Request: fold
Amino acid sequence: GAVVSQHPSRVICKSGTSVKIECRSLDFQATTMFWYRQFPKKSLMLMATSNEGSKATYEQGVEKDKFLINHASLTLSTLTVTSAHPEDSSFYICSARAGRGGNTEAFFGQGTRLTVV
Amino acid sequence: SQKIEQNSEALNIQEGKTATLTCNYTNYSPAYLQWYRQDPGRGPVFLLLIRENEKEKRKERLKVTFDTTLKQSLFHITASQPADSATYLCALDITGGYQKVTFGTGTKLQVIP
Reply:
């Protein structure tokens, strides 16, 4: 199946710094990518939808200035956690779809474990 | 608002038995429903998709049913194995212009040898 690569898999950063997470579709073009956040023993919470060449659409309650999303090409979307704080520590996961519509499979990255100290 | 609930946080089952997981949703009529598997520290992996006009879908030892009247999907793993131990997530595709997927709360399945 299609491969989505997410990097880094783990990152530890100091409070107040920014962290960039990359999500790449390796063998297909993804017009839409999604960013999720997952707390321990909780389900995935959709943060934003990233569309190539346009602004990301954020879910209610997600600060767009805090979580900057850039989808510069059909194979790359980035999530930057700006001025990170300990409460931003979480597991962040991206997913990508090759086509449109609910019947197209979503492929997930391996996730990024962010720890802010 | 859309609500997706899975019957239990955790389910323990003896190896060889059939595991049945439940996904209930409210306030929506999805055209599709998906099931994913997630292992600890990893992203979800797609397993099956079932359409609203399909009552049942099978893939190897997996079977999914979809009852749009009850607003419920059942996910079965037959002849369960310890390797099936994982968290299973159901997901609905909310078509609102960008086809985003919303996940259920997940059920952690433990298959005991």
Remarks:
- The mean pLDDT of chain B is 89.
- The CA atoms of residues 24 and 33 of chain B lie 11 Å apart.
- DSSP finds no helices and eleven strands in chain B.
- The first strand of chain B starts at residue 3 and ends at 6.
